[in-house]
Structure formats: structure tokens, C-alpha cells
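S.,

Sequence below, as promised.
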Amino acid sequence: MSASTASAPAPYTRQEMMAIAAGREIHDGELAIFGVGLSMLAGYFAQAHHAPNVRAMTEGGVYGSTPLGGLPWGIECNRISANAVSFTSALDALGCMVASGRCDVGLIGAAQVDKFGNVNTTGIWGHDMGDTYTPPKTRLTGAGGANDIASGAKRFVIMVGHEKKRFVNKVDYISSPGYLEGGQARERYGFVGGGPSAIVTTLGILRPHPHTREFELSGWFAYTSVEEVRAHTGWDLKLAAHAQQLAEPSVSELSALRRVDQTGMLRKATAQ
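The prediction came back faster than expected:
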């Protein structure tokens, strides 16, 4: 194990582990789009730690910025717009950069996600709607720019707390498309973007099988186990061919993450 992935002696939270694992999915020089909250923490952690040349933008059109004074509360907050290279609009960010296929990677959240990486952030029905729309039992926030990112980015990463109620066999409603029914379904619909490359959770990372597109367990974190991950998943979760325990945050990773999250607003119960 290299020094950059050596175990950190300090305790860390599950949310921090998830943010670091998601940030590891971002590569230097990429054009990346982040939402608010943990996805923004993951993105700017990557910029602070191993991807200094990442070209970051938000759904609101803030491009080339780094957070000042802690994580912003919104996609156009002063903390994210004060030192931006350009400050345009959602039309430029989503309608031009993402929809044209120029965006390398996006990070989005989910209320529900299914075995083919479809995301629901619209509502919870608790049953198959069929052909007739009915009001949901619980109304959620909606897709925002996540549908645009899921449809147009070259790849996207889903970040979600690992609970059985969130990891379902089939989402109640597709707010943002993953691989739809699996296999080549996404290609048949002609999406510009390539689809979800990973689901990063508070317990581990799931990745799609190259042929079926069903998400499998690729790796689990040090504080959990395969059995626990499976117990919190609403489908028969398979192990990927080279599944393994993932590296804990290094000292340098935790330090970079906490420089971004200066106020500590995203630190919750510790993982250990």
C-alpha cells in the first residue's frame, strides 16, 4: 500500500469516507460538475488533493472556482462565486457544456437508486404506478440538474447513504436515467452521456457489470463487511470479480477534505 493510501490514525465519519471515495473517482484535468452538499465536498476534495487542474463548475454556471470560507450553501453562493473564472447560467452549464457531451464527470445524489443505477429524487409511491400518474405518498425535491448530468455527462457518480429503503430493486420513478432496464437499453435511447460509473455509498462502492449493467459490489470500507452491505441492499447484490476492502482515508486525504469543509458542517457520527 502506498503512502498516499496509508490508513489514517484519526477517526473519520462515514460521510467523510464517502466523500473521499467519490473524490477518488475524479481525475486531474477533467471538466467536472458538482451539486450541493456531499457531492461538492467530494469534488473540491479531489481538486485540493490529487486533481489540482480539474475544471470545476456548478449547475448554476459558476466555473473555475474554489470554495472560500467553507462549503457553499447553494450553487451560486458567495463562497463559490467570489473567485470564479466565469459566472454564467444554468443554460450554459447544463444546456451547452453537459448536453453536448463535453463534461467528463458529474456527481449527483439520490433518494432511491436501483440495481441498474436509475435514480429517483421525485417522490415515493411505494407501488408500481403503471400507466396512470397518481400523487406520491412523499414528495421529494425533484431532479434539478441531475437529469441533465445523468443524460449528458461522459460518466457520472451517484452518492447515497446505504440504506435498504434507498437501494431498491426498481425505483418508483426515474428522475435521472442510469442503465434503464440494463444491457444495451441506454444505447437504444440515444443518450449522449455514458451512464453511471459508480455508486459510492456510506458502506462501499458499487460498479456496473460490463454486459448486464447490473450494479455489483466492487469494494467495501474498513468498518463494514460484505454481509452488512448486502443486508442493506434491496436486491440480490453480487460481488464483482475483483471485489476487495477499500483503503481508508490517508492523513493527506483527510487534511485536504477538512480544508475544504472548514466549518465541519458535513461531519456526523464517526465510522469507527
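The helical segments are 14-23, 38-49, 78-81, 90-98, 146-152, 185-188, 226-231, 251-260.

Coffee later?
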